[in-house]
Structures are given as C-alpha cells and as structure tokens.
Amino acid sequence: MALSIGIVGLPNVGKSTLFTALTNKGGLAANYPFATIEPNVGVVPVPDSRLDRLAEIDHPARIVPATVEFVDIAGLVAGATQGEALANQFLANIRETDAIAEVVRFFGDPEVVHVAGKVDPASDVDTIKTELILADIATIEKALPRLEKDAKRDKANVLKFDTANKVLAGLNDGHRARTLDLSDDEVAALYDLHLLTMKPMLYIANVDEDALGGSFEQIDGCDPVPICAKVEADLAELDPAEAKEYLEAMGLEESGLVRLIHEAYKLLGLQSFFTTGPDETRAWTIPIGAKAPQAAGTIHTDFERGFIKAETASFADYDQYGGEAGCREHGRLRQEGKDYVVADGDIMHFKFNV
Ligand SMILES: Nc1nc2c(ncn2[C@@H]2O[C@H](COP(=O)(O)OP(=O)(O)OP(=O)(O)O)[C@@H](O)[C@H]2O)c(=O)[nH]1
Ligand SMILES: [Mg+2]
C-alpha cells in the first residue's frame, strides 16, 4: 500500500519546486504561472533510520523502504473548474490519491509573481477550497441521474443516491465533504465518486528561509507544515552528510520532506512494520490498528488468506539483542495470532499455508 498524495495550490506557489526537490525527478520549476502542463508523478522513499539499523544487523542483499507517491498538478485559479476542461483534467489526476497536500505561499520574494497580486495565505486557501468544492459539485451533478436510476432499480442503491444529495447540499453551502456529518456507511457509499473534498488535507506553508523555525496561524483548524521549497531544492543537490551539516547550520533537525511524510502518516493514521532477513530488509505501511493478517496481506494476498501466525519482535528488542537469534535467546520472539494488533516498528515473519 504505497501512500499517494496529490499536491494542489495556486499557480506559482512552489508546488513543482517542492515536488522536484522531493522526488529529485527534474520536474519543471519556472517563474511563470502554469509551468506544469503534464501531471508529474514521483515516488519518494520514506526515510526511516530503523531500516538502516535492521540492515546493519542482517546484511540483506537489498533494502526496500516504504514509499510515498506525490502527484504534482498545475496551479488552480479562481474559476478554474468552471467550464474549463483543462483544470478538471488536472484534478482528475489526483482523484485517486489518499490525501491532498495544499501548498500555500507564505514567502515574500517580490521577484516571484503572485497570481492574486499579493501574498495572502487565508484568501489563497479559500480560493482553492472553493475550486475543490466546485469540482466535487460537478462530479455529483454528473453522477446523479445515474444514481437515481440505480436507486429506482434496486433499493440497495438508495443510500448512495440519498448521500449524494446530502453531500451536494453541504457542498453548495460551502462545506468540504469531509467536514459534513456522515456515517461510515455514507462515506463508503460515495467512495467510488472519489470526491476531492472527502480526502484528508495537509497544508504546506511555503515560507521564507528565515521563517522556517517560526509558528504559523492554523489553516482550517490544522497547523500547516512549514517548508521552504527553495531550501528543499538546495538539500536535494547535496549528499547526505552535506545535507545534515546544512540542516544543522540552519538549526533544523530534519528536512521538510521528512516532516511532511511524518505529518502525512499521522494524518492518515499510518505506521510501519518491517520484514528482514538475508534477502531483503523492508518497510511496509499499514493503518494503525491493523491486525497481523492484514499486515501479511500487504505483502501478498496469499499471506492473508493462509495466515497461521506471525513471529514478532519489537524494534527495540531486535535492536538491543542484535537480531532474531538474540531475540529468541532472550524470549523476545513472540508467536502472534490473527487477533494481534500490529505495533509500529514490529519486525514480523509470517507463517502461512495456502
Ligand atoms: N523565494 C522563493 N521562491 C520560491 C520558493 N518556492 C518556489 N519559488 C519560486 O517560485 C516560482 C514558481 O515555482 P514553481 O514551483 O514552478 O510553482 P508552481 O506552484 O509549480 O506553479 P504552477 O505549476 O504554475 O502552478 C519559481 O521561480 C520558484 O523558484 C521559495 O520557497 N522561496
Ligand atoms: Mg508547477
């Protein structure tokens, strides 16, 4: 389950600069609006020092980190979703992402054109919110005739039709779908409409370099993740040792990328578990609260179907006792069954039968 995040924002706020730095992919950053006309998709390894420690213990043939996929789209302007097929096409590229990260311009630089003429985070956030809501209204309005027909044909489809109408009313009142009071069943009923405003949102404050340590006003009730896209771009050019020095010189503990990924994991309620041995040391992403068979299923559906048990050690024990043999010796290797709730950092070895 690779986590995917769509990046939205006004034109020229630094989305592609950030995307390029994150993915080292050489996507296009340019000082004019609409520099991005093709969707860019980049896959970023999730930095995790525990993976390095496990590799030190097991000397695997390969190390495979968990990954996050970022999708960079062109900037949205007020009215972008109305009539203009192009903007809708951009938004279609982030329909199936797990979350949306909105880049908000906080940096001052007068050299960089602001589409609205001035730096005003609150107003920019409002503009994007409106565009995403309008896109969802268009999606629902387009689907309604079909949903109505389905509901008349089979009453199993009535919930979907009713919920679509309920959400449409909320959107028309200016609320994001996610903030409406919906039951789990209602949310599930609308799943395949892939509403943009149903996704969890993360705000990235693209700030001036010297503001990085500061705190920022909440946006929509959440703290934005401060990042300086320019600093990230510089960091991306350095080797790890140089990057570390650079961060230290700026008084920062971790790069914006690491902060961003941690926030995204938190927002989505995700955690990692590990598999490790001579062939491979690997991190996997699962929801917090997932049980052992579900964890097994992220590796292979057969592992889930034929799940018998999971030999499990905590990362702390694996680290302290120097691997599986040491854990076994100290009675730290547990045999966990199908009801075991996986803990963050567990090292797991699945036994299954197919
Ligand atoms: N001063 C400063 N300039 C930045 C920063 N981030 C981006 N820029 C500049 O802003 C301009 C636009 O950056 P892009 O990353 O292309 O912006 P975008 O959001 O992808 O724009 P569109 O694709 O047109 O929607 C470029 O000239 C960047 O160098 C920053 O943190 N500080
Ligand atoms: Mg761009």
How would you describe the overall organization of this protein?
The protein has 354 residues and is α/β, with parallel strands linked by helices. The protein has a domain at 289-352: Ubiquitin-like (UB roll). Helices cover 39% and strands 19% of the residues. It is built from 13 helices and twelve strands. It has helices at 15-23, 49-58, 85-92, 121-153, 158-172, 184-189, 229-237, 240-249, 256-268, 292-299, 301-305, 315-320, 324-329, and strands spanning 3-8, 40-45, 62-64, 67-72, 99-105, 201-206, 225-227, 270-276, 280-287, 307-313, 334-336, 347-352. The strands form three sheets. It has a six-stranded mixed sheet with strand order 2-4-1-5-6-7, with helices on both faces. A three-stranded mixed sheet has the order 3-9-8, with helices on both faces. A hairpin with a 3-residue loop joins strand 8 and strand 9 (280-287). The longest helix is centred in the middle third of the chain and has 33 residues, at 121-153. The two termini are 22 Å apart. The relative contact order is 0.14. The structure holds guanosine-5'-triphosphate and magnesium ion. Magnesium ion binds next to helix 1.
Q: Could you provide a short overview of the structure?
A:
With 354 residues, the chain is α/β, with parallel strands linked by helices. The chain is built from 13 helices and twelve strands. β8 and β9 form a beta hairpin.
